[in-house]
Write a structure and sequence with these properties.
The complex is a heterodimer of chains A (237) and B (114). With 237 residues, chain A is an all-alpha fold. Helix content of chain A is 66%, strand content 3%. A two-stranded antiparallel ribbon of chain A has the order 1-2. In chain A, a hairpin with a 2-residue loop joins strand 1 and strand 2. With 114 residues, chain B is mainly alpha-helical. Chain B folds into two domains: 72 residues; 34 residues. Classes of the chains: A mainly alpha (237), B mainly alpha (114).
Chain lengths: 237, 114
């Protein structure tokens, strides 16, 4: 297939540039790697999925006449004999933001063709994600031991459990998938799949490029982004 | 050939300072939103503070970590305008939730009427 010629590629800022791009009778996202555009569109659809979960949680919580469990007591953790509210959740937030930062730096070093730094930072991100999933597993088992079920719990409105397991479980699934891909891509970076014009991928004949790290980064930042909303609406509200 | 060369250069790198700044800001904002719970603010103050810190964090992550600030408007607008549909959905479900609560309380206390 011949390479499609893209003319008028220059970046024009603002809505004028947007009108220019969309009205050019050519590819719309000029200069944006197709994988990046597709990842963004996937993330948009994922945003709708998470929004539906959070909105149903809002509706469920707003419409129950029974008192909602107080999250700062339910998620409190004993530290040195004193119950600290939301201690584990705060740690999880800390770990996830840390891993988001290392990912952002990995993308930067990737584009600078700094293979070692990029690889180590992707690996650090993967480890951060793994710690997060571990803490979430601990949180889940603690609550299950305390008798929280999707249909009942000892703290208040019975809907609490179903929303909790559904929302954090779906988010945890995203983190777990992210961790798997982070380990794979850490390997790919260290193995030099993006060096010297790029190695051909496993499922494709296209050559690897550090833009793949940015695409992976988009996914990982999205996971962090969703956690920001879950933290605000589920744990703090 | 000229075009493919431009394509390769698309991954513009930014100074490390901007990432470290955003990173630090995210920690600070998370700490503040944790303090909202620590000091047990209640009512409107609690909700507004939670939402304020949440949107600030989300905005920083999307703008700088996900590079939307530097992205072309054609892409940015395709991503952000659909969010208005979510806002509409939220508004609808707030009204629906209030109505469900009202009918539940009404029939629990007043009864179905025979």
């Amino acid at each position: 297939m011949s390479e499609q010629k893209i003319v008028d590629y220059e970046f024009k800022p603002g809505f004028k540039g947007m009108a220019h791009d969309t009205g050019s009778d050519q590819t719309m996202f000029k200069g944006v790697h197709w994988g990046k555009a597709m990842m963004w569109i996937f993330l948009l659809s994922d945003t709708f999925v998470f929004s539906c979960f959070l909105i149903s949680y809002m509706k469920g919580r707003a419409s129950t006449p029974i008192e909602w469990p107080n999250p700062s007591e339910v998620f409190a953790l004993e530290a040195f004999g004193v119950p600290v509210p939301l201690l584990l959740i705060a740690l999880m937030t800390f770990v996830l933001i840390t891993s988001s930062g290392t990912m952002a730096l990995a993308v930067k070093y990737g584009y600078e063709k700094n293979r070692k730094m990029c690889g180590w930072l992707v690996l650090a991100t993967a480890v951060g994600g793994l710690i997060f999933v571990g803490m979430q597993a601990y949180e889940w088992s603690k609550l299950i031991h305390e008798g929280v079920r999707p249909w009942e719990n000892p703290f208040g409105a019975p809907q609490f459990g179903s929303f909790f397991f559904m929302i954090t479980g779906f988010h945890g699934t995203h983190v777990s998938i992210g961790v798997i891909f982070l380990f794979i891509y850490a390997y790919k970076v260290f193995a030099g799949h993006y060096e010297n014009g790029g190695k051909r991928g496993w499922f494709t004949t296209m050559r690897g490029d550090y833009v793949e790290i940015e695409i992976l980064g988009l996914y990982w930042h999205f996971v962090d982004l969703v956690w920001v909303f879950i933290f605000a609406f589920f744990y703090l509200w | 050939m000229d075009e493919t060369k431009k394509k390769e250069e698309q991954g513009s790198t930014h100074k490390i300072g901007i990432y470290l700044w955003i990173w630090g800001l995210l920690f600070v904002l998370s700490f503040f939103s944790y303090l909202v719970d620590w000091y047990q603010f209640q009512g409107l103050l609690r909700w507004s503070l939670i939402l304020f810190f949440m949107f600030l964090k989300a905005g920083l992550i999307m703008a700088f970590f996900m590079h939307l600030f530097w992205e072309r408007y054609a892409l940015v607008n395709v991503l952000l305008w659909p969010m208005t549909a979510i806002v509409c959905f939220v508004v609808l479900m707030v009204a629906e939730g209030k109505y469900t609560l009202f009918t539940r309380l009404f029939y629990f206390f007043v009864g179905g009427g025979q």
